[in-house]
From TrEMBL:
InterPro entries: Methyltransf_25 (IPR041698), SAM-dependent_MTases_sf (IPR029063). It comes from Reticulibacter mediterranei. Residues 50-148 form the Methyltransferase domain. GO terms for molecular function: methyltransferase activity. Pfam families: Methyltransf_25. This is Methyltransferase domain-containing protein. It comes from the Bacteria. PANTHER family: 2-METHOXY-6-POLYPRENYL-1,4-BENZOQUINOL METHYLASE, MITOCHONDRIAL, METHYLTRANSFERASE.
Amino acid sequence: MASSENNYVFDPDSPEELARLTHQDRLLTKAMGGVFQGVSASEVTTFRNVLDLGCGPGGWVLDVAFEYPNIEAAGIDIGRPMVDYANARARSQQLTNASFGVMDFNQPLDFPDGAFDLVNGRLLIGSLLREIWPRFLAECTRILHPGGRLQITEPIDLGVTSSPALDRMAQMMFEGSLRAGLGFPVGNRTANTTHMLPRLFREAGYQNIKLIGHAIEFSAETEAWTDLYRNFEVAYHMARPLFIQTGLITDEDFEKLYQEMLIEMHASDFVGVWNMLTVTGTKPEAQ
C-alpha cells in the first residue's frame, strides 16, 4: 500500500498527534454508543470484513476486533507511524483479526470490488479535499458488497462553549480548513461537511439513509473535560501554522488567544458540548 501527498491539517507523524487521536478515538466511540451506528444486532452478525478510513492509531478497528472476533477489521491511514503503532497494538492485544496499512483515501483505494460489509470514516474533514468527496464516496461504494453499509461521522461544531477564546479557535479551524480546500462552505467564511453528507450519500446512490446525532459534554468537572482540554491544547498548538499561513491571525495574537483559551477552560464555571453527526446508508443490492 503506497501513500501520496498528505492533505491532513496536522502532522500525522507527530507523537503528540498520535496520543491525541488515541484519546479522541475512545471519547468518540463512547459518545456514539459503540462502533456501529444505526445497525441492528442481526445485521452485525452478517459482517465478515469491515474497513476504517483514516484509522489513526487504530482505536475503532481494535474495538471491533476485540468485541467481534468473527469480523476481520482493517484500517488505513496516510501516516506510517500511526499504522506501525496500530499494528503493534493489535499484536500486543493478540488481535489476529485486526490489520492496518498505509494508504491515502484521497486516491483510488487498493481493494477489490465488494471487499467489505461496512466502511467507516470519522472526522475526515481534516484530510479529505472538497472536490474529492464524490469520487471518494464512489470508491467506498465500489469496495462495498451489494447491501453493504457506509457510515461517516463528522463534527457539527468543534465545541459550543462559554470560552470566547476557544470558540474563536474553532471558528479559525473551520475557516482555515475552508482555505486549505477542506470541507464545504457554510455562510461566507466557514467550512463543514455535515450539512452536505445526506445529499452526497443520495447522489452516490445510497439507500436507507439515517442521521444520528452525538454529543460530548466537557464542562468543568465532567469526565470528558481532561481529555478534551488536552485535545484542544495539542490540536490548536499544531494548527498554529495553518492559522498564520492562511492569514487568519498573527503569531503574536495567536499566542495571546491560545493562552486565553487555556485559562478560560480552567474556569470553575466553564461549560462545553461537542456535537457530531453520523450519516449511514446502504449500497443497493445487485439488480
